[in-house]
Design brief:
- The protein has a single domain (about 5-210), classed as Methane Monooxygenase Hydroxylase, Chain G, domain 1.
- The model has no long low-confidence stretch (mean pLDDT about 95).
- The chain is mainly α and about 220 residues long.
- The protein has helices at about 5-40, 40-70, 75-110, 120-140, 145-150, 155-175, 180-210.
- The protein has 7 helices and no strands.
- The chain starts with a helix and ends in a 12-residue tail after the last helix.
């Protein structure tokens, strides 16, 4: 294998790590929400255990990125892509932490009946998963416009979160006995809301990779 071919292979390997880690995080999010809806402690425990694998994947990916930079001396766009990959791996690891946080809430509250059937929290999670998938595709393809479109969807998650907050506050004010259950649901919703913020950060890294400019996307419309 020529030096150039080896370099190309290493770059592709790094991208593959980003894609595989995103898939692991997506699965963790889906399982954590399923566990929350059904108060399934066993499933929640699986999410918590899988977080270790996500963390390991992050460190392995970062090691690959550092090796490429140390041995290949990448320039310009390739260097931006490699450094962006490292930051994206960090964001994915933190998304895994949010899924694990939801699972922890399930394990703490499994002996309590859900305050209400969950609709908006799963909807928030579904949007965040769609955003994650599209954001990773935009990064791999180097598609700046797609990254902006993905980031603009965070407003949907924020709107749902505000709606959930108001609804749960109403429950607590009307009946103080619901405070504990409502608070735990609010914590779960906050974890999901943060997923959208993390994906927005990934989109910002994609724009940086393509343009060389770091642009704040939070609260801005798609271009």
């Amino acid at each position: 294998m020529t030096t150039r071919a080896a370099y190309t292979y290493q770059i592709q390997e790094l991208k593959d790590v980003v894609v595989s880690m995103a898939s692991m995080v997506d699965k963790a999010i889906a399982r954590s929400i399923d566990a929350l809806k059904t108060q399934n402690v066993q499933l929640a425990r699986q999410v918590r255990e899988s977080d270790h694998e996500i963390n390991e994947r992050r460190w392995a990916g970062e090691e690959q990125a550092i090796t490429i930079m140390a041995t290949q001396g990448p320039m310009a766009g390739d260097l931006r892509m490699i450094t962006a990959s490292m930051m994206i791996l960090t964001e994915l690891e933190r998304m895994g932490d949010h899924a694990s946080g939801i699972a922890k809430i399930v394990m703490q509250t499994a002996d309590e009946e859900l305050l209400k059937p969950l609709v908006d929290i799963p909807r928030m999670a579904q949007i965040s998963r769609e955003m994650l998938s599209d954001a990773i595709t935009a990064f791999i393809d180097g598609n700046e416009d797609a990254a902006w479109r993905v980031a603009s969807r965070d407003d949907e998650i924020d709107s749902l979160y505000e709606q959930i907050y108001r609804e749960l506050l109403t429950y607590m004010m009307a009946d103080p006995s619901t405070i504990n259950r409502a608070t735990h649901l609010l914590w779960a919703a906050h974890n999901v809301e943060r997923l959208g913020d993390r994906v927005t950060n990934i989109c910002e890294r994609t724009v940086f990779t393509v343009t060389g400019k770091f642009e704040e996307m939070d609260g801005l419309p798609a271009r």
